[in-house]
Amino acid sequence: MNEKLDQQYFDVKFDFHESKYEPIKNIGNGAYGVVCLAHHRKIGTSVAIKKIADVFDHFIIGMRTYREIKILRHLVNHENIITIRDVFLDSNNQKHVYIVFDYMDTDLKRVLESNQTLTNDHIKYFSYQILNGLAFIHQSGIIHRDLKPSNILLNQSCNLKIADFGMARQYRDHDQTQYVVTRWYRAPEVILGYTEYSQAIDLWSMGCILAEMFGRKPIFSGTNTIAQIQLIFIILGTPSKAYLTSLRSDCFRRLILSVGNRQPANFKALYPSATDDGIDLLRQLLVIDPEQRIRATAALKHNFVNEFLIKLDDNDDCMIDNDVEKFDFGFESEKWTLNQLQNAIREEIDHFSFRPIKQNYDETSTADHDQFFPHNQPMENHHRVVIVDSKSPSPTTSSSSSSTAVVTTATSKLEIDTTRPLEKKRRKNGHHHHHHHHHHHHNHHHSKRSCAMIYNDEQDDSGDTNDEEAVQLS
């Protein structure tokens, strides 16, 4: 990581003063905040604390913070979604918001860039957990909109949690803003400027992530939006006449036709280590037409990952909970002033500050731990993963009232090494098929004029500013 970047975030001060947390060290730089590792002074639990500076001075940062806190409070108690444990204001100036999360050892981006071996079992288990989290998010009426490896947190035991809901939006929200998802993970319907899109965009991102787990490099790493569209069609092949006709703009039709008449790439040849089931799921995720793309609940039943679900009965209905309360996005349409937004954020913070925590802690008592982490308590509707003991047979039936997903024993032994710093793999510019796109430069100027809108990416490039690829390709 470059040193200037390091300095920027290691210099950020975490002033909790009399708070219950003791900052240990700064560990990362999120999209809109710096994260530090801290310990709960009384319980000793490790937590990650994100500092969002000057929240009350900037409407966009304030709104993003409010949205993330509110959504994560709604999605609490799912084991594949990061949990907010606490939120508080800087005791000095009351302008910085601190959000306390479960501490996770690493993220998928770091793992993919390291020389950590990922077996097929790792990839299956990670895929299952991402899909399990997405199914719950989508059933709550939410689209994540920014799913990428750096937002997928992992610990050493391979437990996975989806994080960073600051970009999330309502399903079928008509005013869908232009910047969605770091470009490499962005669905074609988003790049092509469809104003209405669905939860299917998260499944496209999932497909890109699955391909990256198989190949250890991004499948579509376009250096700009036009290169991105071309790469997608170079790899997935020329779309049907019907699809081309359905496009809203001549410009996009020409752009897609500019890659010539292509057969879909052979995924088995691109990813020789992937199993047939893995390749099949990848094909169903990376479908150009969002209507035809597999949904999260259907993907959970796919052979590649369904060993992690209990079958309930003969009609093969896996335990997927459809009775999920929808998240209320009403606040998005309020025309709030900055002042009203500040009050709304303070109200969210109050939900946390009034949680009673006993003053006299006993290090050994789990009761205290559970009071600090009330969300760990079993709930009627929980989605807890149970590791089955290797000697007991895997249960194949379960009463429909329980919604416990059971992980088979193969996975209970899975680990990733997070003890040593994950070394970046040195790699040359290994883009398996990216040499194609420079044949098309002559199209770019023409497209720039007629497709001005696709340059409205609020933050272009892959979005991860310290990304090696972005540097190599520019």
TrEMBL record:
Biased composition (Basic residues): 423-449
Recorded catalytic activity of this chain's protein: L-threonyl-[protein] + ATP = O-phospho-L-threonyl-[protein] + ADP + H(+); L-seryl-[protein] + ATP = O-phospho-L-seryl-[protein] + ADP + H(+)
Location of the Protein kinase domain: 21-305
Keyword flag Transferase: yes
Binding site for ATP: 51
SUPFAM superfamilies assigned to the protein according to its UniProt record, in alphabetical order: Protein kinase-like (PK-like)
Coiled-coil features, chain-numbered ranges: none
Keywords assigned by UniProt, alphabetized: ATP-binding, Kinase, Magnesium, Nucleotide-binding, Serine/threonine-protein kinase, Transferase
InterPro entries in alphabetical order: Kinase-like_dom_sf, MAP_kinase_CS, MAPK, Prot_kinase_dom, Protein_kinase_ATP_BS, Ser/Thr_kinase_AS
Residue ranges, compositional bias (Low complexity): 390-413
Similarity field: Belongs to the protein kinase superfamily. Ser/Thr protein kinase family. MAP kinase subfamily.
Protein name in UniProt: Mitogen-activated protein kinase
The species this protein was found in: Rotaria socialis
Upper taxonomic lineage: Eukaryota, Metazoa, Spiralia, Gnathifera, Rotifera
